[in-house]
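Progress narrative, work stream C.
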Amino acid sequence: MLTPQNEAALAEAVAAASGPLRVAGGGTRPVGNPVTGEVLSVSGLTGVTLYEPGALTLVVAAGTPLADVEAALAKENQRLAFEPMDHRGLLGTEGEPTIGGVAAANVSGPRRIAVGACRDHLLGVRFVDGQGTVLKNGGRVMKNVTGYDLVKLLCGSYGTLGVLTEVSLKVLPKPDVTGVVLIEGLSNEDAVRALSMALGSPFEVTGAAHTPVGVDGDPVTMIRIEGFEASVAYRLERLQDLLRSFGTSATETDPEKTAAGWRWVRDVEAFHGAPGDVWRISVKPSDGPAVAQALQAEGLLYDWGGGLVWARVAEGTDVRAMSDGVRGHATLVRASEETRRKLGAFHPETAPLAAISKGLREKFDPRGIFNPGLMG
């Protein structure tokens, strides 16, 4: 394993590489097609380079543990608003998630429907390309964001275009209060209708999820509102009035309970330790229930108002074939290496998009040494 301790050493390691490199951060998110090659870890690149709470900006080395980033922000009552998921429980991995891994995989959680994904909060990046050249793009502060498209390109590329060494992020204040409207017993179809109605309201919903089997075994629909105490109380009441036709609802504002509930959604805790493959399916919210029914899934969780469906299915099940005719895409998040090789972890690209992707990889990594084959 290669574990350079700074950006210059990392660039030298890449330039000297004679074969494939398996780029890794904390090793907690082995998502994608199986990759062979010598492990190149960025775990030695740690530390906050710049943090300006008043400017809502943070610059941090890519190998910095996510927990350290969140702890530093918490001291200033701030947060990563895109709510990055922790994959360890779902994938059965150990170690510490890194901020570079979050950016490389564009890891985002339930609040994405309100504030955007990780890539929408990235201001700039530093990275090493496939020839060992250090490049930077974007800025370190919100007023100096240039080349934004390249920043977005690196975010979600899973280390196939370059090795991130530093990321600049926009951060946001934590809300004073979090409130949740809970409705029990809804069918999947009614739940998606209720979530869509809530998201279409003026009440600034920051989370909209549904599970057919909640912690107590019954279906539960969850709608989150955040902000100042008086505003949250008012909006909770109005939202309950809006959704009265779907049955009796309850509200929850206890900080520990609301945090635990949305962590349960964010990390797909219902599937932890349960058998089967896990797919992450993005579709039009109104198509979510029909897609889920076609899958005959052993477990389901709807997020983003039904636009994101987590499905736990029998091992080796080809979800894409069963969803034929529905616009969207499906990612195989958890499965055996054999199944990932056979089905492909990422949704197949159309011919024009595949040609663009191939051209980008040849430009940034002409030797093809970064995570070869991981994305297909």
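Work stream C, second folded protein:
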Amino acid sequence: MTAARNGIVAKVAKTLSEIEPNELKATLVSAVFVFILMSSYYVLRPIRDAMASDWSDSEVSFLWNLNFFISAALVAIFGLAVSHTRLRNVVPAVYGFFAITFIGFYLGISFSDDRELIDKSFYLWVSVFALFHVTIFWTLMADTFTKAQAKRLFSVIFAGASAGALVGPSIPTLFAGVLGLDTLMLIASVALLMVVPLVFYLYHLKEVELGNRDLQADTSNLVLGGKWWQGFGSFFMNPYLLAIGAFILLYVFIGSFVYFEQKNLLADFSRVERTQILGSVDWLVNILTFVMALFVTGRIVGKLGMPTALALMPFLVCAALLILAFAPILTIFLALQVFRRVGNYGVTRPAREMLYTQVSREERFKAKPVVDIVVYRGGDAVSSDVFALLSEGLGLGLAAIAVVGAGIAALWGGVGVWLGRKFDRSNEQGGQ
């Protein structure tokens, strides 16, 4: 009976997402893994963003600039770790470290007299975690599945991320007023510890069931060697990685402009109310993303190709920003925010992660964090300064800033087309 039931599950999964029977367990474990990660993050995210409305654009811009330097330093430390430590130990250590630090914030609140200092430190640390936990996870995924498997399976794994992103924000939305924000922080920290054993299990499945022993099969038991700074060097020397960096940088500029406007619009609400509002927005975004990731994303990549998958949302966002420029009202702004995030999580981000299946193992573990974290946070720093200049310095309103954003989105789409064509050409030339 159990075997028959498992066979039915495998057939249904393959029908929906083209998962082969030997890939089912690793795909589901990966989906559960990222479900827990995203649930934890989306408990912490509304708490963090609710704090920002208490501060000016210049104060938040300063925090974003500081975040860039902290993130760059941590990426360098990570590069040193993967050069001298077995990879199967590095990934669980990263998640365990973040979980312990968040527990430390919970304890620190009880002993510190300067709550604003704790809040700003927490805001910074969640922002660091926001990128680290994602890039480390997808580095593990790119090192676990082949290129062909990635094109079929990553969208399903993203559905796990979307499911976690549904559960996560519902917790602060429903319970922020009852449990308090500090208790929610502790809940997320404890949940984060649960992913550690899943890392070791995935290494086992990679060799035993996926049949990917030749895909850097010994990475879990070896160290990469080399220097801690090689990830930075690889990024600047590889045009493909530079293009991914440019793609991310342009995305960040759009996101930053929208974030600051959102922060200012919520300034009149209390912190608990902001947390609940932002949790509700996250929930709406993620339920739409879940549907897209499960039924749409893989088909866009498979049938329309990577250029379309990478450029579709940038060009649609460009059009939406032009509409916002002509009708700069709150409802259209909120619709743009939901549309932009759904498109990124459901289409653009899964396609972007597939790009890393074209690079070497060392570039995955050393250069990918440089691209995903240092470049991203560098974009945050620069774009926050630009926004503060445009809003507080030049006094530009939402409509004028939307026009600037539309131009950036068009350039973002052009880079996506170039990256997608290069990816498809590489596959045609003999990639797995």
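The first helix runs from residue 2 to 17. No further action is required on this item.
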